[in-house]
From TrEMBL, chains A, B:
Protein name as it appears in the record: GntR family transcriptional regulator
Chain segments annotated as coiled-coil in the UniProt record: none
Family matches, as SUPFAM superfamilies: Winged helix' DNA-binding domain
Occurrences of domain HTH gntR-type (ranges): 11-79
Listed Pfam families: GntR
Domain of life: Bacteria
CDD domains: WHTH_GntR
InterPro entries hit by this protein: Tscrpt_reg_HTH_GntR, WH-like_DNA-bd_sf, WH_DNA-bd_sf
Source species: Viridibacillus soli
Keyword Signal: no
Length: 125, 125
DNA sequence: CGATTTGTTATAATATATATAGAACAGAAT
DNA sequence: ATTCTGTTCTATATATATTATAACAAATCG
């Protein structure tokens, strides 16, 4: 996997990891059922600490995006278990809310926002 | 202004403030040109520290949403100065990106996401 | 003008979050 | 049986968040 970590960013490393793994899944570079690298090897690749990768994996598990098999590893959730739970939908809505609000305030209309989203969807798929 | 601060939240207080003020502007409860409460009185109302409110105001200024008049106060930016700068648009896009990615991963389609956004726009306006 | 209010600045203290390091352990994989 | 896995623990360093005071100069108001 080809991902870029910026230690200087205001976004914590473990979050950068989480987001880029999610983008990797969205774009199909990571397929459902596929195993993620071990926390140790991944950490070595990225030049970060093992625990930082581990934290990201557990955040992904909390989001219901990966399944962690104890003492074994992390696996991208399959489409069966990846079912857009009410909780997950609510989470995305909660994330989207401040973004939409700020967009509206700086003068974006419904069409602008829809267009921006469409652009991102194409860019991520 | 009627806003709810949750000190226990994982979202920092100053960010909660920032987001809710933005929502207040989006919904018209706060009008362009209107002055925000003084950092002291607002802090007293909310039961938080003066500096926490001050931090939120400066974050809003950085976003180009309010204008800070030195030694005087913070004012909601007018529609003239609130012009959807390229920088601001890029910022919103950067905020939107991980949200869309996560939405796609949990199985939401373009229509689902558009619908969710539409719902939020109505809810915020 | 005089008093109050304003943001600003500085210092300090505390708590939490982030990140790294090293070690040890028990279960899984080979 | 050996290696690899996540897990757990201790420890440390840094950054962020929040509160608490205090003081100051500029703006505001009576």
């Amino acid at each position: 996997m080809f991902l870029q970590i910026e230690p200087q960013s205001d976004v914590p490393i473990y979050m950068q990891l989480t987001q880029q793994i999610i983008e990797g899944i969205a774009s199909g570079q990571l397929k459902p059922g596929e195993a993620l690298p071990s926390v140790r090897s991944f950490a070595a690749d990225l030049g970060v600490n093992m625990h930082t990768v581990n934290k990201s994996y557990h955040e992904l598990e909390k989001k219901g995006i990966v399944r962690i098999i104890p003492k074994s590893g992390a696996v991208v959730a399959g489409p069966n278990e990846l079912g857009a739970t009410d909780v997950q939908l609510q989470q995305v809505e909660q994330m989207l809310r401040p973004v939409v609000a700020e967009g509206l305030v700086i003068g974006l209309g419904e069409q602008d926002l829809q267009q921006l989203m469409q652009k991102l969807i194409k860019n991520l798929s």
